[in-house]
Amino acid sequence: MSVKIDDWLLEILACPKSRAPLRYDDETDELVCDESGLAYPIRDGIPVLLVDEAREIA
């Protein structure tokens, strides 16, 4: 189930590893950091911003 993240929330969220901005990927329902190459899951509408829970992206 895909849940859209509000734009105002994306403006204040940052990658915990690189401190870079995150973008929402609606295909995977994840928050993606292009700088660190990590994708953070969203579970039950709540972003899980833990590096240990993130998956590496190519």
From TrEMBL:
It holds the Pfam family Trm112p. GO terms for cellular component: cytosol. This is UPF0434 protein EFW17_22200. It comes from Halostreptopolyspora alba. Belongs to the UPF0434 family.
